[in-house]
Write a structure and sequence with these properties.
The protein is of the alpha/beta class. The chain is built from ten helices and 14 strands. β7 and β8 form a beta hairpin. The longest helix has 16 residues.
């Protein structure tokens, strides 16, 4: 399991000094990736609203799009759900990568109609939340600054709660505590951060925490690559290209609120370095089948 520990170490670099990335249980990446080996249809949910700029951020769309690309390479059908504020951003990312994934835009108030339809599909085996804003204990959404997010958005938390009840595997990726899935660490994080009212309350089967949520998606892709012996992780230059695409579509850096080549306040060079490190980690070790030697 050393390979997955190394991947976890890379994606958990707290380059943004958020100080909220706890140590998750051992082999979360391995367990999440292994569960995907039996996947059929997968739903990915993403979108975090930047109140000041009235749009979505760059953390989330890249990770969701590249993860969808990797899963399609494994012959999985992928559907991506997001909110209206993130629609043009995800449309641009899907088009750029030429994905087959269907994009569903869910508005506030449509949950009772759309979510049961999604969950009634017996082929859906997995739900994945990647930097998806999640509800706090008081039912509101908050940003990292502790400020309430006022825009009405669909309650995707309820989709994950219902999915678990139906036996659908749920995976979540987050970096700040206020994303869907961080409810798995609610009691731990509550005593660790000052603005604990922002914390999400929705647990999932497999939680992946990372310094940047996109990195968590890339860590999952790297783990899958190693398991199946197939290249699934994109190249650093692809990251740079897609970041420009989502910026042109209206996304902003969630930390600086600017349309610049950065994610969570970290320049594109840093994200490219993380991807390069992941590539080196999964290619420097020989494999026989799915076992490290």
């Amino acid at each position: 399991m050393k390979i997955y520990s190394k991947i976890d170490e890379i994606i958990k670099e707290d380059a943004g000094n958020r100080n909220v990335i706890p140590i998750t249980r051992r082999n979360t990446l391995y367990d999440a990736a292994k569960s995907l080996l039996d996947a059929k249809e997968i739903v990915i949910v993403t979108g975090f609203y930047i109140e000041r700029m009235k749009t979505g951020e760059t953390d989330g769309p890249l990770g969701a799009a590249f993860l969808a690309q990797a899963l399609e390479k494994l012959s999985n059908k992928v559907t991506i759900l997001t909110s209206p504020f993130n629609a043009q951003i995800m449309e641009a990312a899907i088009a750029e990568l030429q994905l087959s994934a269907e994009l569903l835009i869910v508005e506030a108030g449509e949950e009772l109609e759309i979510f049961p339809q999604i969950l009634s599909n017996p082929s859906i085996t997995h739900l994945i939340a990647l930097e998806q804003m999640g509800t706090a204990l008081d039912g509101n959404y908050y940003n990292m600054a502790g400020m309430k997010i006022s825009i009405p958005v669909a309650r995707f938390d309820s989709l994950f709660v219902q999915a678990r009840e139906k036996g659908i595997t749920t995976i979540a990726i987050g970096d700040g505590g206020n994303e869907i899935g961080m409810g798995s660490l609610y009691s731990y994080l509550f005593s660790k951060i000052d603005k604990n009212w922002i914390l999400n309350i929705t647990p999932v089967d497999y939680l992946i925490t990372a310094g940047v949520s996109n990195w968590g998606g890339y860590g999952l892709m790297a783990s899958l690559s190693y398991l199946v012996g197939q290249p699934l992780l994109h190249d650093p230059q692809d990251e740079k290209r897609l970041l420009q695409v989502v910026l042109d579509a209206g996304a902003v850096d969630g930390k600086t609120n600017m349309k610049v080549m950065s994610v969570d306040g970290l320049p594109i060079k840093k994200h490219m370095e993380i991807i390069d490190q992941l590539h080196k980690t999964i290619t420097d070790r020989p494999m026989v089948g799915t076992q490290q030697i």
